[in-house]
Amino acid sequence: xxxxxxxxxxxxxxxxxxxxxxxxxxxxxxxxxxxxxxxxxxxxxxxxxxxxxxxxxxxxxxxxxxxxxxxxxxxxxxxxxxxxxxxxxxxxxxxxxxxxxxxxxxxxxxxxxxxxxxxxxxxxxxxxxxxxxxxxxxxxxxxxxxxxxxxxxxxxxxxxxxxxxxxxxxxxxxxxxxxxxxxxxxxxxxxxxxxxxxxxxxxxxxxxxxxxxxxxxxxxxxxxxxxxxxxxxxxxxxxxxxxxxxxxxxxxxxxxxxxxxxxxxxxxxxxxxxxxxxxxxxxxxxxxxxxxxxxxxxxxxxxxxxxxxxxxxxxxxxxxxxxxx
Length: 325
Fold this sequence. Notes:
8-stranded mixed sheet, alpha+beta, 9 helices, BirA Bifunctional Protein, domain 2
């Protein structure tokens, strides 16, 4: 049995320095550090994400109460925002079932923050500031900002908002993605995601930070739909060396629309044969009370550390990855 840590003392020291830099950055920008529970009675309804579950046995739960380990601190942080917290950030462990690989570990460290009054473009500027600070040792050129449509037109040769499934499938085949199984021919978003991950993403962020913004409205997740263009959501992602580092939104504040999206995701989970999960009624109540207009973003700390240290896989920057846990 290999009881020793997977990473080195040098990387442990680098992680500690990186976390100190993050806290210093937000202290200088007057953003409050908060903690929220890891355990929740609600779960993530997103069909792309599977939740870890556990059982609480104690007072008022003699028969056991099922709880979920959070996949993101987003929902309770939004409850704090609705209660008047002002700008907040959190560094915490999050948990996602079934995710393990070069860039994934089922338990990983996330940095998440919310800025009342910010648009997603203003938040992109702040994400760039922080990322440049944390990766100062890398020779990064001028940052690149591309809309989702521009990225597809540049690297895949089609308009993602207008292309039909047949055109998307043809594009995948032209780029060598043949014999793909498990994708329904009528599901545009599955084919768009395939093209993004296999054709476009590997070419993003080469020696510079690349922001992709204005994702399709069908991939809005928890983002607002653009008021001037209903085809797109006010969402962005950050890439460096083909690695996704951040996912951000101009946050949805409409409780009824959020409930509709939760129900739609639950229907999709049922269609996929996935386990049903309880939606977060506390979040809906907070949205109904009034979430301030804000933008928020989640950043993968371990992936930042990979790029900072030159590691080739996430296990090299974790003390004890899942194989040694």
